[in-house]
Amino acid sequence: MKIQFERIMLNYQKLPIVKLLFAGLIMALLAQCMEEEELGWTFYLESPPPPEITSVSSTIKDCMPPYPVTFYQETENLLGHVNYFWDFGDGNTSTLQNPTHIYDSIGSYDVMLTVSNEIGADTMYLDMSALNQTSIPVEAGFSYEHFNDNNYAPSKVIFSNTSSGSKFFDWDFGDGGQDNDDDPEHVFDSEGIYTVTLTGTCTSDESDVYTQQIYINSPPSRIYVDALNLMLPSNLRNKRIYVEIYHNTTYIGSTRTISASSYPVKFINPEDFYDAPIFEFVSFAYNEVFKFLVIEEIAEADDFVIYEIVLAPVDIQNKFYPKEYFQIEHVPALEDVFIDLYLKY
Fold first, then answer.
1. Which of 105, 131, 157 is the last residue of a domain?
2. Tens digits of per-residue pLDDT, 117-167?
3. pLDDT-based confidence at residue 43 (cuts at 50, 70, 90)
4. How far apart are CA 54 and CA 75, in angstroms?
5. Does residue 137 lie in a domain region?
6. For residue 47, what pLDDT band results from cuts at 50, 70 and 90?
7. Same domain, 228 and 329
8. Are residues 77 and 161 in the same domain?
9. What CATH number does the domain containing 266 carry?
10. How many structural domains is the chain composed of?
11. CA distance 88 to 103
12. In this model, does residue 213 exceed pLDDT 60?
C-alpha cells in the first residue's frame, strides 16, 4: 500500500492534469464538509483554537482553619484530550477539573490553573489572600438555573451554592422538600411561586440564611416544531419522500417533498414545511401522541406510507421539555430509521 501511494504521488507530481483533478477533489470534499454543518458536525479548515480559560473562582467551605476550598473553572475550546493542572500555592497540586483542597495554615496563596490539549495551553491565576486570617465571615448564597432553560412544571432546578465560610448546608425548597447537599437539584412538580431558603453553618455554629423566590409556570399547551431531522436507510435514496405530522388523528402540517442522495436530511421551519407544524392544546395525557408519517410520493399512484414514528408528549414532559429530542425511533426499532426534533414551547 505504501508503494502504491508513493507511485500515485509521483504520477501526480508529473502530470498537470492529475494535479487539477486532485485539487478539484480536495475542494469538493471541503465543500461537502461545510455543508454538513447542518447535521451538527464541526469541521475546521484551519487548526482549531487552543483552550481558553474564561474564569477561575473558589468557595471557602469553613469559617476557620483548616480551610477547605473548592475551585471552579470555565474553559472554552475543549477539543481532544484535555488536561487540567492546579498548583495550590502551598506545594500541593491536582489534575481534577474542579478540585477541593484543604489549606492547613493561614496565609496568602497564589493558585495557578493550566488547561492544555494537543493544540495548546492556557494559564490563569487566582489570588487566595482571603485565607490570610484566623476566621472569615459566614455568608450564605446561591444561584440557580432551570434544566433545559425553561420553568414549566414539572421543572427541574439546578442550584449552585455560592456560600462562603459555611461547612454544613440546609436547603428548604418551599414545597416540603429539603436537602443537605452542597449543590442540589430539585423538581418542582406544580406551578407556583416557591421561597427557597439556604442556611449555611460553620464548625463554630455561626450561621447565615439566604432566600430567593423561584417561579414555576404551568405546563405549555402549545409545542412548535422548529426543525426535523429525518434518517432513512440507503434504499430510499433518491426517492421522493415527505413527512406528514399529526396530533393524535388531527393533521397539523407536512414537510416539502425531497429526493435526497444521502441521509439524514434536515427540514427547517418555515421554509421546509407546508402549514405551521404546531401542536395545539397539548395535555400530556398518557393516551396522547405526536405522529410522524414518512411517505413516498409515487407518480400516477397513491402515495405510500413507509414508516410511522410516534412520540408521546408525556415523555417530553418527563424529560423536562427538551429543546432537542434525538433519535425518536420506529417501533419496533429499525436500523437507520429515526427522527430528531427541535422544539419550542
1. 131
2. 999 999 999 999 999 999 999 999 999 999 999 999 999 999 999 999 999
3. low
4. 6
5. no
6. confident
7. yes
8. no
9. 2.60.40.150
10. 4
11. 9
12. yes
DSSP 18-50: HHHHHHHHHHHHHHHHHHGGGGT----SSPPPP
- Total residue count of the chain as it appears in this document: 345
Q: How far is CA 298 from CA 228, 243, 256, 336, in A?
A: 22, 14, 15, 22
Q: Write down the pLDDT at residue 35.
A: 40
170: β partners: 199
Residue 195 cell numbers, joined: 421561597
Query: Cell 484543604 belongs to which residue?
Result: 102
C-alpha cell at 129: 489572600
In this structure, are 305 and 281 located in the same domain? yes
Enter the C-alpha cell of residue 114: 493550566
- Please list the residues that pair with 171 across neighbouring strands: 179, 198
296 and 236 both lie in a single domain: yes
Give the DSSP H/E element, type plus range, for residue 155.
strand 155-161
Residues 300 and 237 in one domain: yes
Q: Identify whether 41 is part of a domain.
A: no
Nearest to 213 by CA among 163, 175, 170, 166: 175
What does the pLDDT look like over 49-87, one tens digit per residue? 999 999 999 999 999 999 999 999 999 999 999 999 999
What distance in Å separates the CA atoms of residue 40 and residue 37, rounded to the nearest whole number? Answer: 5
Cell of 60: 471557602
Which residue type, as a one-letter code, is found at position 17? I
What was the pLDDT predicted at 19?
44
282 lies in the same domain as 308: yes
At 185, the amino acid letter reads: E
Contact between 313 and 341 under an 8 Å Cβ cutoff? The reply is no
Residues 68 and 150 in one domain: no
In a domain, 183, yes or no: yes
Per the structure, the complete domain to which residue 232 belongs is given by 223-344
Q: Is residue 237 part of a domain?
A: yes
Structure-block grid coordinates of residue 161: 451554592
Q: What is the pTM of this model?
A: 0.78
The cell numbers describing 9, all together, are: 504521488
